[in-house]
């Protein structure tokens, strides 16, 4: 009985350690995109053997940290009501998305340096799909331009968010202005040019 009871206890300890390590990775990488495995182990209060037992490489741990932040961000974006006027929804998504990008900027920088570009893109697929679907609905409703494919516009908005985050990080832009700017730029990208009104949607 004692041996049987010890196994769930060890599994619980392992889960607890893994959770501490991921939280520590988010914190360390959030302060410094080049944080080392030793930095993260110290932050988590675990030894190197425990750290590497859960995450065999820095790349694996960086990916776990990014996945954690994206999951937390997705919870925030899920709360945005997508049923209203697409222009109002886009503004809300961009403003919320900006806050999430700002919080995750350093971790994303670490991920871009450590992971293959296609993997980072894969991890962003869900939030980008949400924006794509909204843009497509706006095109069908006749409130967004239809001469440019929705996936291309969604990609442009993604780059706007990250570009603004970079400008804030380097001090070129006041962070209090960022939410307004990203929303205005997103709406400008999707707005129907006067000369394009009535054109068929791009496929």
Automatic annotation (TrEMBL):
PROSITE patterns: HTH_TETR_2. InterPro entries: Homeodomain-like_sf (IPR009057), HTH-type_TetR-like_transc_reg (IPR050109), HTH_TetR (IPR001647), Tet_transcr_reg_TetR-rel_C_sf (IPR036271). Residues 15-73 form the HTH tetR-type domain. Residues 36-55 bind DNA. Keywords: DNA-binding, Transcription, Transcription regulation. Pfam families: TetR_N. It comes from the Bacteria. Signal peptide: none annotated. PANTHER family: HTH-TYPE TRANSCRIPTIONAL REGULATOR BETI, HTH-TYPE TRANSCRIPTIONAL REGULATOR RUTR. This is HTH tetR-type domain-containing protein.
């Amino acid at each position: 009985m004692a041996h049987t009871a010890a196994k769930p206890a060890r599994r619980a300890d392992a889960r607890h350690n893994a959770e501490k390590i991921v939280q520590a990775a988010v914190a360390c990488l959030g302060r410094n995109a080049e944080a080392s495995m030793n930095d993260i182990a110290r932050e988590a209060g675990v030894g190197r053997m425990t750290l590497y037992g859960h995450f065999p490489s820095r790349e694996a741990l960086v990916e776990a940290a990014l996945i954690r932040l994206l999951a937390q961000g997705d919870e925030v974006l899920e709360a945005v009501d997508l049923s209203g006027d697409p222009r109002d929804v886009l503004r809300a998504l961009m403003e919320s998305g900006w806050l999430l990008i700002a919080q995750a900027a350093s971790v994303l920088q670490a991920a871009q340096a450590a992971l293959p570009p296609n993997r980072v893109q894969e991890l962003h697929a869900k939030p980008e799909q949400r924006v794509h679907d909204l843009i497509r609905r706006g095109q069908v409703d006749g409130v967004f331009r239809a001469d440019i494919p929705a996936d291309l516009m969604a990609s442009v908005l993604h780059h706007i968010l990250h570009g603004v985050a970079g400008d804030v990080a380097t001090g070129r832009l006041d962070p209090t202005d960022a939410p307004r700017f990203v929303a205005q730029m997103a709406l400008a990208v999707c707005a129907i040019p006067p000369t394009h009104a009535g054109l068929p949607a791009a496929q």
